[in-house]
Amino acid sequence: MPCIVAMFVQVETASAVITEAMLSTSCLAAVACSNSGHDSSASSISISIMPALERLLCCCAGHLTQGISLYSDLLAELQPGVCSGLYAELLVKKADAQRQQGQFSAALQDLDCAMAWEPESADCLRLRALVYRESGNYTQSFMEFQKLGKLMPDNAEVFEELQQAAQLCLDSRQQALRAMGTEQATLGTLHWD
């Protein structure tokens, strides 16, 4: 019985921390976005939001469904035209939580939206490539890593990811060709019998 009580207290504590982080983030975001005439002010306030967002992300790590919901709520409060960088960053974080839950289509929709606001976001391109890879679309993953490589040509980690994506793409195509060959050989055998 004490284990159940301890678990309940931990869940309640995590919920309280998430709620606190969400409220402070929401208040800062409201201030940042209400100042539409001064984009530089919005940018500086957006920077001060990031510690609260990071805290929110850490709290939500074990509660991805709740985290996705909280990101959605926060995104609904923001004015993307004023806070485009913050809006895109929140979309990327929400998409990462969706990816971790295997919600690849939803993640790609949010990443597409983020790319519309921040077309050269390295974090967004990298996450798109990972989503495509994890969903088994190796060709698209390779293409996203190529875009990232053009954006960050001197980054060794990106180059390594691009090589891995190319290998996965090649392996996938070879496996498909072998499967086609086996299928054709089977059909040929059936035809001659």
Give an account of the 3D structure.
Helix 2 packs antiparallel against helix 3, helix 3 packs antiparallel against helix 4 and helix 4 (84-100) packs antiparallel against helix 5 (104-117). The N and C termini lie far apart (68 Å). The protein has helices at 2-34, 39-60, 64-77, 84-100, 104-117, 122-134, 138-151, 156-192. Residues 1-47 have low confidence and may be disordered. Helix content is 85%, strand content 0%.
In short:
The chain is mainly α. The chain contains eight helices and no strands.
Name the average pLDDT.
73
Distance between the termini: 68 Å
- Major sheet characteristics: none
What is the share of helical residues?
Answer: over 70%
- Strand fraction equals under 5%
Low-pLDDT parts are: 1-47
What is the helix tally?
Answer: 8
H-E string: HHHHHHHH
Question: Nearest-angstrom radius of gyration?
Answer: 22 Å
Number of strands: 0
Instruction: Specify the structural class.
Output: mainly alpha
Oligomer: single chain
Features:
193 residues, single chain, mainly alpha
Topology (SSEs and partners):
Layout lengths: L1 H33 L4 H22 L3 H14 L6 H17 L3 H14 L4 H13 L3 H14 L4 H37 L1
Helix pairs in contact: 1-2, 1-3, 2-3, 3-4, 4-5, 4-6, 5-6, 6-7, 7-8
